[in-house]
Write a structure and sequence with these properties.
Blueprint: H1 14-17, H2 33-55, H3 63-71, H4 75-91, H5 94-115, H6 118-129, H7 139-154, H8 162-189, E1 195-198, H9 208-224, E2 234-237, H10 240-249, H11 253-264, H12 275-291, H13 297-301, H14 310-343, H15 354-366, H16 379-394, E3 397-400, E4 412-417, E5 423-432, E6 442-447, E7 450-451, E8 457-458, E9 461-468, H17 481-499, H18 519-525, H19 531-534, H20 549-558, H21 563-581, H22 593-601, H23 620-623, H24 633-651, H25 656-668, H26 674-682, H27 689-694
Parallel strand pairs: 5-9
Antiparallel strand pairs: 1-2, 3-4, 4-5, 6-9, 7-8
Length: about 700
Amino acid sequence: MTIASDIECSAVNPLITGSDAPFGTMPLSRLTPSDYEEGIMEGIKLQNQEIEAICNQRSVPTFENTIVALDRSGKVLNRSILALSNLESATGDTVLMNTLSKVTPALSEHSTNMMLNERLWSRIRQVYERRNDDTSLNDEDRRLIEKTYKSFVHSGADLQGEQREKYRRLSAELSDLNVKFSQNVTNAMKDPARRLWLKESDLTGIPETIKSAYRAAGAEALEEEGKTDDPALYLVTIFRPSYGPFMMYSDRRDLREKLYKLNGSTNTSGEFDNTQILKDIANVRLEIAQLMGRKNYAEYALELTMAQTPDNVMAFLEDLRSAYTEPVHKELEEIQNLARKTEGNDFVLQPWDYSYWSDKLKNSLYSFSNEDLKPYFELNRTIDGVFGLATKLYGYKFKATDKVDKYHPDVRIYEVYKKSGDLLGLLYADFFYRAGKSPGAWMTEFRAESKDDAGNKTLPLISIVCNFSKPVGNDPVLLIADEVETFLHEFGHALHGLSSEAKYESLSGTNVDHDFVELFSQFNENYLTRKEYLDGFARHYKTGKKIPADLLDRFVKSAQFGAAYSTMRQLGFGYLDMAYHTITEPLRASADIEQFEANAQKPVRIFEPVEGSVISSSFGHIFSGGYAAGYYGYKWSEELDADAFAAFKENGIFDQKTAAKFLKMLQSGDTKDAMELYVEFRGKKPTVDALLERDGIK
């Protein structure tokens, strides 16, 4: 696979040459699409040369000349891929999308060629087979050998003859399908047909700050379309910062239903239809798994996780289903009874009613609404508070810097320092929604941490991306509690990347089992309901006063409200994921995705299926985001995070000894087995008890 060589690029491409900018950062705002393309193609060429050099050695394969050499290869390629993929997601630039689509076949072919390189595989296998004979190896060295060996086996290195070529073809096809699925989701979010143009009379129940955001969105959209602004028009979209508040506060049930269905039918038809693509993805994954001698993809994928088998995953999900089923039915009954007092006894709660009426019930029970805390979560103070959590626990300090180039003016960059004063790394923070930006929130990296043989550290360059509403005029940015929780979550991932003290890049930071990685993000969320934490930064943006004790008490008491619904919803995603990845026969082209989804989620169904509305067609986590047969990991990690936070509750939520033990897990990356790391921290294996207690189930 080759790409046309007539690439126009900068005279000097820093993706290839490296950068003399502070901290070795890339000039992201000045890179061109052709720079990325050239960097990737040159990166492939250079890594091929590095691999050839490993294979051509006459000396006996050793840990240093084979395993370490492979781990340290591909620097230019990794730098180029990370820069392109990160900016493609954060900007939604169609030219970058096309560039990524263009280079994806070459990247897939390169990865497959490396994994199926018989000479390289022979050397890796020899080192693996003699690993216990080499007394110079430490535990981290042996871990790298074992992880490298298993990764190659998992990627087809042991296949023979025609099977190897079939794996090569399937891998290329799957890579292309993943990119198409992801880009269709992003493009569909921008579809003008998936938004509502409303007038102020349509916005009854909507708080004034949110109305202002809808008005600003309307003005911006009209300007982008070259139209004259109409102050009477308000724009509501299916992007989360717009969609969520409307579903929670709008008195117009008809409009809530309309918006719900616009969201639920995303990617089910038209130019960005994903229905056939997702079937193809599931089928190709099944083929790969069966090629590897496994019954289904879940059996194949879970071999490299804490859970290990589909049976273990389903037993875990079933245990949660059993614990939360009765509470969720009770919760829904209470919500419907409240609604019937206003709407009449024939009112039947629908999915577009849940947010609206559950908020009213929460307000009725606890005199608390999500808007109540908003004045206390002004963005700049919240940044100080979220970063301050790492200061209290680990002694980290954050210093804003203007030394580093930004890919967008909205981006803020911070130097992060250890308690000792040593520089830990850089944190990029991209907080605001922009048209075209991928939905949701995520952590990523521009460069991972590692060390050379002399102990010199490559500093990590970590990024968190959110979709908070932009400020309107001179108004401050105020966050609801859910957005603060999202910020804490992604910051937890960022700390995992920043804190890493691994020697080898492939074992550093967040390169851990996917059902372990969410522990470190979800752990942070526990602090959102702790008075000792909130008192440190949450102030009313006008008066400067702390959150009143009674409001904080109502917030804390209301935190358990909706836990059963939230869990059952997450279980629904987990059951659906496992359904797609435990098929043993290919999905037919004529397969009805709505029916498949309904059957998969039946054990944890909250509402009856809505015709035309599905999750699957835009379920990026499992079809393009690395969570195939792994969505259960969010709840699995939730069991871990609740159990971990119980240790802090026992000793004090800022207890330094407990924090030091938790930091050791953050620093360890994948240098040790996940459960071993956890037991070292906690002194025992986790149980579900702390999670059930936190959710008010037990």
